[in-house]
Specification:
heterodimer; A: 318 residues; alpha+beta; Immunoglobulin-like; 3 domains; six-stranded mixed beta sheet; five-stranded mixed beta sheet; 5 helices; 17 strands; 33% strand; elongated; B: 700 residues; C8orf32 fold; 19 helices
């Protein structure tokens, strides 16, 4: 998900060491001290040389040891959209020191922290998908800022983040119609083949036949069904992701755009996708729901539209 | 692009350092390095005052102008820097023309000016770091030039300043980024503790590295300092003056203690009475920068009468002119070139006007036009040599080894007539002294072996003692030492060696001066104390010249000196040589460390207990019940994570290690108490009861 190439393979938790220019400056001073102390015999120069060496040792070993003791716990929201920032809460524990933190997957800006600390990072997932873990890079040069030690830490999320695709451009127009309501459905036979769109509170005049008994029992108040009009248009979006990852993201975005249009037009939308568990063809009632479905969508044979659902507008992406 | 525009672009203001603490720490560090240089006395008063006032003012000005391009200021600073460098080279050339090659003061002042000039423009962190590096260079210059252990105080201060500056600068660099969690500006107890720990680790690491590093070689001087502050010319040029002897100077030794300073040694006089008693104290009289230990000779005696040493010829010759003063050869000196052996003497106590030097002195850098040379080669200044006097002597050091001395045997060579005075013995010398010398050296084939045999015999059969009985009236000092008391100090021992050698036909004389003293491994200088005043035998070896011998002083031959391998080994050697002192100091130190350590630990433990008790006594109901819950979770391997709210934690416990639905009720009570408008005592009691039933642990 990170667009920039990583400095080393994700998952490698080895500590990387990178000296700063200060190391070379102190090293040069140390060599000068050594030469001067050997030629002049001034023991004070040996003391300064020892201090320079001690400073380099402290500057190198300190971060190297400290970085190994850092632990991270991360929590994130359930949903995100590719390309849009979302917050990931990090609780970083370890010895008291100043560190730089950034997320590599999903990518975030670099921030500073004084450990131990808890805070939120704004991360951006480049692609749709499901994030079950984040890769954080922690760097420190504590205490003296001479040598940087960096370590990648893979942190499992307690709940995965479903990253919906970016909404793609859609020019397709969806025909609209009002759905039948409980009151409009008076006198209409409710039987097999009718589709319950939703339920609502009972209002005076509603037919008793339209009462939704399971909901009435559960909520302990009369509830009535709202039926889809038998001739209402429906939108079915069938998404085929058997393609390259970039193309798949683009297709998912287009599908998302269709879903958005359909939902905006007030028509029922069914999304036919393939997931790891197999074909999935359920209806989606909101962009959030659609986003989650699209996040989970993968290559494979998408679900087929049931034969009794007519009339429909079928959009097949691509 | 025009040149001016290019310059302007290159000098655009960079992001200034935002943390004032970094500026303050760097400023203090720089000032400490300046004070260190000034305290060592290498800087004249005016530049010192300018630096002390100018650097803080410069840092303040720089802070106020930190957002400005300051093009004009930069141009002015560049000009000022150029003037400083030109001035430095001017002084250097002038110094060469005067013949006094002493660049210490100009060099130190150049660094000082650079520091002052640079302090006027340090807007960014990078500039401040350059200031630190510059202060490190200045500390190095100070360390190279310093002759005092007091520099250690400044080095410790400077090191702490450097470390704090680096830590703050690093922290500032992190604070440049957006912050996660606690703002960077706040100093947490953890951060303070970490800083203190870093200082301690650095100190420990430095000490370990210092002990493991190769020890500094014996000190070599690349400059030839000479300074004679506030000296008073002597009334009689060429005469011997020794203010440390009071009215005993010029041979008046009837009252050994009258008017003498504790550091006075009666050997630095016109004559040496071996019946005199009294030893100088441990006052530091001078420091010597030299690449190897040697006898620092002041003068010699060649006429022995059984009790007193005098000189056969006391006429002085004036030598001098352009610096350095060339020292003519005297009797026994060999003209062939040998290795230059440079010694710089830093006088710490008023003493004799003798110019000390090892081996054969060939050149002297002295802050006066003239010196006075005695027939034995001894040099005398025309004025008092008080505290602060500095002079540099270049001697010719022959590469002397045991084998060379065995080959260069005076007994197998026709000695020149000039050596006759060095074979002189009193007519009434006891025969048994002569017989003893013959007996001891009967099996020794060479002069060198004879000397070693005599030294060994004295080491085995006599005792070095500063507390010997007075010399009986009319007794011969050597006879008394060798046959009666068998106790003596350096005057008796050295004299006996000379007398016995002369009795064997080996030309020798008694030299007076100082043993090398203890080498300060920090300054690299030999610290010579009044008690190091000494007399020893000097023996003439054809092709070598005068060579010192003494069974009481451990001075290696010139060709056999090996510096200590590591600083750690030098410390170990020093401890070995000062075992009793170390034992006493270690005992006291250990006791102090134990007392302070245990006291500190006890105070810390008690403090923690008291703090914890206070905290527990003052904690709210929410804190108490939360702690109980967290403890219960921890005992079930499910500690609370830093990010978890209490409700989340309860949910995790209820679905994990503590599957009890009543936990949710506890959570609701806690939430109500934490965020609700009123205190529900009944609810609290219920929560405590439930929690106790679930966890088996009371919230109280």
């Amino acid at each position: 998900m990170c667009s920039a190439p990583l400095p080393f393979p994700v998952g490698s938790e080895r500590v990387r060491i990178r000296p700063t220019r200060g190391v070379y400056a102190i090293g040069a001073l140390g060599i000068a001290f050594l030469i001067a102390s050997r030629t002049t015999g001034a023991g004070w120069l040996t003391v300064l040389l020892a201090m320079a060496a001690g400073l380099l040792a402290t500057g190198a070993i300190g971060p190297w040891l400290a970085i190994r003791r850092i632990t991270i716990v991360a929590t994130a929201p359930n949903d995100a959209v590719a390309g849009r920032p979302f917050s990931i809460k990090l609780a970083i524990d370890g010895p008291s020191l100043f560190v730089q933190v950034r997320l590599l997957e999903p990518a975030s800006e670099r921030v500073g922290a004084n450990l131990p600390t808890v805070g939120e990072l704004r991360a951006v997932a480049d692609r749709r998908g499901v994030i079950t873990q984040v890769v954080a890079e922690v760097s420190t040069a504590s205490p003296v800022g001479l040598v940087w030690a960096s370590r990648q830490i893979i942190v499992a999320l307690p709940t995965p983040v479903a990253v919906a695709p970016r909404v793609g451009p859609v020019t397709f127009a969806v025909a609209t119609s009002s759905p039948a309501t409980g009151s409009e459905a008076i006198g209409r036979r409710v039987g097999a083949g009718e589709t319950v769109r939703s339920i609502r509170d009972y209002r005076q005049g509603d037919s008793l036949r339209m009462i939704h008994w399971p909901a009435t029992a559960r909520l302990n108040q009369p509830m009535v069904k709202e039926l889809e009009s038998p001739d209402a248009p429906r939108l079915v979006v069938r998404l085929d992701l058997n393609c390259a990852p970039d193309e798949a993201d683009w297709r998912a975005g287009i599908a998302y755009g269709h879903v958005q249009k359909g939902l905006a037009a007030g028509v029922p939308v069914r999304l036919l996708t393939a997931e790891r568990s197999g074909p999935h063809g359920g209806a989606v009632g909101s962009m959030l729901e659609a986003g989650r479905r699209l996040a989970h969508a993968t290559n494979g044979r998408p679900a087929e539209l049931p034969g009794n659902e007519r009339p429909v507008t079928i959009v097949t992406v691509p | 692009m025009k040149l001016t525009e290019t310059i302007r672009q290159a000098n655009l203001a960079t992001d200034p350092e935002r943390f004032t603490a970094v500026r303050v720490a760097v400023g203090i560090t720089v000032i400490v390095s300046v004070l260190a240089l000034i305290a060592q006395g290498f800087v004249r008063t005016a530049p010192a005052l300018v630096a002390i006032a100018g650097i803080p003012a410069g840092f303040l000005l720089s802070y106020r102008m930190r957002h400005s391009d300051a093009l004009k200021l930069k141009a002015a600073l560049a000009i000022a820097l150029t003037i400083s460098v030109v001035g430095f080279f001017g002084e250097l050339v002038s110094s060469f023309q005067d013949g006094l090659v002493d660049i210490q003061v100009p060099l130190a002042e150049l660094f000082l000016w650079v520091q002052v000039i640079h302090s006027l423009h340090v807007p960014a962190r990078r500039d401040l770091m350059f200031s630190l590096a510059s202060s490190a260079a200045m500390m190095a210059i100070t360390a190279a030039l310093s002759i005092s252990s007091s520099l250690g105080f400044f080095i410790i201060l400077w090191a702490v300043g450097l470390l704090v500056s680096l830590m703050l600068a690093y922290r500032s660099s992190i604070a440049d980024l957006p912050t996660l969690g606690v703002p960077m500006g706040s100093i947490t107890p953890g951060a303070t503790k970490a800083a203190a720990r870093s200082v301690a680790i650095l100190g420990l690491a430095s000490i370990l590295v210092f002990l493991a590093l190769p020890g500094a070689r014996a000190s070599r001087s690349f400059t030839f300092p000479a300074e004679l502050p506030s000296s008073t010319a002597l009334g009689s040029p060429g005469s011997l003056s020794n203010p440390s002897l009071g009215n005993r100077a010029n041979g008046n030794q009837t009252d050994p203690s009258a008017g003498a300073a504790g550091s006075g040694y009666f050997g630095f006089a016109e004559q040496l009475d071996t019946s005199a008693r009294g030893r100088p104290d441990d006052t530091l009289v001078m420091r010597v920068r030299a690449s190897a230990p040697a006898f620092w000779r002041g003068q010699t005696f060649d006429v022995w009468d059984g009790v007193t040493w005098t000189v056969s010829d006391n006429t002085s010759t004036t030598i001098g002119g352009q610096a350095p003063i060339q020292v003519p050869l005297t009797v026994g000196d060999l003209p062939q070139p040998a290795e230059d052996f440079i010694q710089t003497f830093y006088i710490e106590q008023p003493g004799p006007n003798l110019v000390f030097g090892a081996y054969r002195m060939s050149e002297v850098y002295f802050d006066a036009r003239f010196l006075f040379q005695q027939p034995d080669g001894a040099l005398r200044a025309g004025s008092d040599l008080g505290r602060g006097a500095v002079y540099t002597v270049i001697s010719q050091r022959p590469y002397v080894t045991e084998s060379l001395l065995k080959v260069s045997d005076p007994l197998r060579t026709d000695l020149p007539i000039s050596m006759d005075p060095f074979l002189q013995l009193p007519d009434e010398i006891p025969q048994r002294v002569l017989d003893l010398a013959e007996e001891i050296t009967a099996d020794s084939p060479t002069t060198y072996d004879k000397i070693r045999a005599l030294e060994d015999w004295m080491a085995q059969n006599t005792t070095y003692s500063l507390d010997i009985p007075p010399l009986p009236e009319g007794a011969d000092s050597v006879d008394e030492y060798l046959f009666e008391t068998r106790q003596g100090f350096c005057e008796q021992i050295g004299t006996s060696l000379v007398v016995m050698l002369r009795s064997l036909g080996i030309p020798s004389r008694l030299a007076i001066g100082f043993i090398p003293g203890e080498r300060n491994s920090l300054t690299g200088l030999y610290e010579v104390r009044a008690s190091d005043a000494h007399s020893w035998a000097e023996v003439y070896f054809p092709g070598v010249g005068w060579q010192g011998f003494d069974p009481t002083a451990q001075v290696p031959l010139a060709g056999e000196f090996e510096p200590t391998a590591t600083a750690g080994a030098a410390v170990v050697a020093w401890i070995r040589d000062n075992a009793s002192l170390v034992a006493r100091a270690s005992g006291i130190t250990l006791a102090l460390v134990l007392v302070i350590g245990f006291g500190g630990m006890l105070t810390m433990i008690i403090g923690r207990i008291v703090t914890e008790r206070r905290r527990k006594a003052n904690r709210s109901w929410i804190e108490r019940i939360t702690e109980t819950l967290e403890y219960a979770g921890s005992t079930h391997d499910r500690p609370r994570q830093g990010h978890e709210t209490i409700r989340e934690y309860i949910a995790a416990l209820a679905t994990g290690p503590l599957p009890d639905s009543r936990l949710h009720e506890v959570g609701e009570i806690i939430a109500r108490e934490a965020f609700g408008p009123i205190t529900d005592h009944h609810g609290r009691a219920t929560g405590e009861r439930l929690l106790e039933e679930i966890t088996g642990r009371s919230a109280n």
